[in-house]
Design a protein that fits this description.
Layout (H helix, E strand, L loop, with lengths): L34 H9 L3 H12 L3 H9 L3 H13 L1 E2 L2 E2 L9 H8 L10 H12 L4 H14 L5 H7 L5 H14 L5 H6 L6 H14 L4 H6 L6 H14 L5 H7 L5 H13 L5 H10 L4 H17 L4 H12 L4 H17 L6
Antiparallel strand pairs: 1-2
Helix pairs in contact: 1-2, 1-3, 1-4, 2-3, 4-5, 4-6, 4-7, 6-7, 7-9, 8-9, 9-11, 11-13, 13-14, 13-15, 14-15, 15-17, 16-17, 16-19, 17-18, 18-19
Amino acid sequence: MPQFDDPFTTKKPNVTQTTTTTHAEVTPPLGDIPPAQLAINAAEGRRGAAWRLMLWIIDDDPRAMEAVASLEDDRLAHHLLEFIALGTWAGKPFVVPPKLRSSYARIRLSNLLQAGGAMTRERAERVLFAGFRDRRQEVRGTAITILGEMGDRVAEPLLLQALHDPSHQVRMQAARALGKLRDPSVVPTLLETLKGADEQMVNQVFASLVQIGPPAIPAVAHEMHSASPWIRWHCMRAFGEMQDFRAIPYLIAGLRDPDTGVCWMAAKSLVLYGKASLEPVLRQLESSVPNQLQAETSCYILHQLYLRDSKLTPYLKPVVEAFSGVANTLAVSSLASKALAQLRADHLLSI
C-alpha cells in the first residue's frame, strides 16, 4: 500500500458492509512518520499527511507545532484555512477522522493563524489577506473571522471593504470583526451599512457598536431620528447594553418615542441602569403630564426599581399605584414630583 493511502483519502469500490462500523468512524494508525515530514507532505497537498498532522496538532504535540512553525511554505497555511472553511484540502474533498469534525477542532486549527499560534504574525496575515481575495465566499468569511479574532487594525481597510462583499454572510462576518477591533473611526461606516440592511445585518451592526462602546454613543443617538422604528428600537437596546451613564438621557428621550415598541425597549434598558435611572425618570414625569404610554413605561421602571431595592418602595409605590387609579396620568405627574422631593430630602438619590 502506498505511504498515505488510507480510508480517508482513497476511493474504494462499493462493497457491501458486513459490520455496522464504517471506515469514516475508524481512525487508522497514525504511523511513525515524523510530524516535520507530515507537514512537508501536507503542504504538497497530500490529504493522508494532512489529517495525521492535524490530529497531532489538536493533541498539543510539540513536534507538530514546531513542524508547522518551522516550515517555510505558505501552502500549508493556505490548505489549513481552506480546511477550516470548507473541509477540503488542496481543493480535494476527503473524509477526516471523527476527532477533526468538531467545531472545537476547527477553532484549535484556526488558532495556528492567530497571534501566539504556531505561525508568525507576518505569515498569518499574508495567508489571511490572500484568503480575503479568494473566489470562495466560505474562505473569505473564515479569513475575515480570524482577522477579527486577531484584533489587528492593520486588517481594518480589508474589513471595511468586506462590508460591500457580494456574499451576505461575508458582510455579516466583516461587521462582527470590525466590532472586535473596537475602533471608533469605523462607526460611521458601520452605520452606513444600515441602509437597506436586513434584520440579521442590523442586529450584527448594533452588536458591533455595543462592542465599540461609549465612543459610539453620539453616532447611535443620531440614528434615533431614523424614520424606521426598527432602527430606533435597536438604538434603545444598544444604549442599555453599553451600560454607560451618558446614554441615560437618550433613553429618557426614547420614552417619548411615538412607537410603542421603542418606548418599551427604552424602559427595559433604563431598568438595567438601576438606581442611576431613578431621578431622570421622575424628572420627566414631573416636567409635564405624561401620555398613557409614557406613564405606563415610566411606572414600569419605577416598579422594577423598588422591587430591587425595598428602601425605595414607600416613595415609588404610590406613583405606580396612582397610574392604576381613576386619576391616572394627572396623579402620576404630581406624585412623581413629591417622590422626587422626598428622595432628595432623605439622600436616597445617590448611586
